[in-house]
Amino acid sequence: MRNEPFRVMIVGGGVVGRHHQKVIERHPRFDITALVDGDPASLEAFIADRETAGAPPACFADLESAVASREADVVVICTPSGLHAEQALTAASAGLHVLIEKPLDVTVAAAADLVDYARSRSGSGQVLAVVSQHRFDPASAAVKKLIEDGALGRVTSATATMGWYRSQEYYDKAGWRGTWRLDGGGAAMNQGVHTIDLLRWLVGRPRRISAYTALVGHGGIEVEDTAVAIVEFATGALATLHLTTSAFPGSPVRIQIHGTHGTAVIEDDRLASVHWSTDNSQEAVAAAKADDKAATLVPADELTSAGRHDDAYVRGHLRQYDDLARAIDTGTTPCVDVLDALESLALTRAIYRAAESGNSITFDSELEPLNAGSTR
Question: Is residue 104 classed as helix, strand or coil in its secondary structure?
């Protein structure tokens, strides 16, 4: 493990870039040394908002000049979604490690060149990671282990619900939001991508998707603010997805995983309840319902009843940066790499394609652009 911190270049000085700034400034293994943004005001605001003293980062108006400067070891992509894969490939082609904010990009085809590059660099030690910070939440990790250990039995079904609220002002104040080209979608692609990712990660590879989308609570945007879907998985398990930004004033994100021996519920990133038993007799049902094992699996402050911490979002990203440092130190694959993130992008895009066509579609058909090459 190297002694000095990894030098970080943040690409994009907006809301997401400023969030990564706060995370990195609290992480001992990373140091911000460069910032890329074409808007001088964003660069100035970013520097003024620094929480720690020290040398200001080198500022660049374009990524090509920034990469050529060799001011960083790691490039963090925090720009609008439709720019992610192209910018990540620019940084990776210069031999730098890369962390891409969610999603990987807005379509599978747009990510094809980066996917090809990632495959060609497998085993090289170069780290290409994608943000899915909620996989590192203690609740998510605990449920994943229960499933892998067979404690819940065979997973039979799941429900995932995100009832958020975004005001009209939210969309109006940033021109790229709510556009197909740069946002890639609405409630599913932008806000719901973490919920979609967790569902796929926990339940497995999808097989077939049916969906509906609608724009019902907002105006002046191209994309949906509500999406519902049914996902059939390769194991035979079925899941329902409900994602919206028109649920005033907002409700918790809730993921329920049901199996032949147990059920686990995650609510707002914390473990709401877990019940399981190896005894499936009718007499054992009441006992299993009364025996909530959640408190035995995660720390007390990771239970739903404990409430959310003010720095919950920072904590989640800090865990992902821990994993990024581990992968770079050891030259191994990060927990969420480009190929893994590709499948969550493909599931999200399959929801849109199913809604557009009015028919159920196969998950594998969404990955066909990779076989044909990039069509960006």
Answer: coil
Low-confidence ranges of the chain (pLDDT < 70): 53, 305-310, 371-376
Q: Are 117 and 93 in contact (CB under 8 A)?
A: yes
pLDDT at 372: 60
Amino acid identity of 4? E
Terminal Cα distance for the chain, rounded: 39
Q: For residue 98, what pLDDT is reported?
A: 98
State the Cα–Cα distance between residues 285 and 348, nearest whole angstrom. 36
CB 367 within 8 A of CB 108: yes
Residue 100, strand partner residues: 77, 130
CB 256: neighbour CB atoms within 10 A?
18
CB 66 within 8 A of CB 145: no
According to the model, what pLDDT value does residue 36 have?
97
Sheet-wide strand order for 97-100: 58-60, 30-36, 6-11, 74-77, 97-100, 128-130
Tell me the residue ranges of DSSP E strands in 170-276. Answer: 206-214, 226-233, 238-244, 254-259, 262-267, 270-276
**Encoding tokens for residue 26?**
């609290």
Quote the pLDDT of residue 290. Answer: 93
* Contact predicate 178/223, CB 8 Å: yes
The type of residue at 142 is A
Vertex 244 angle, CA 243 and 246, to 5° = 165
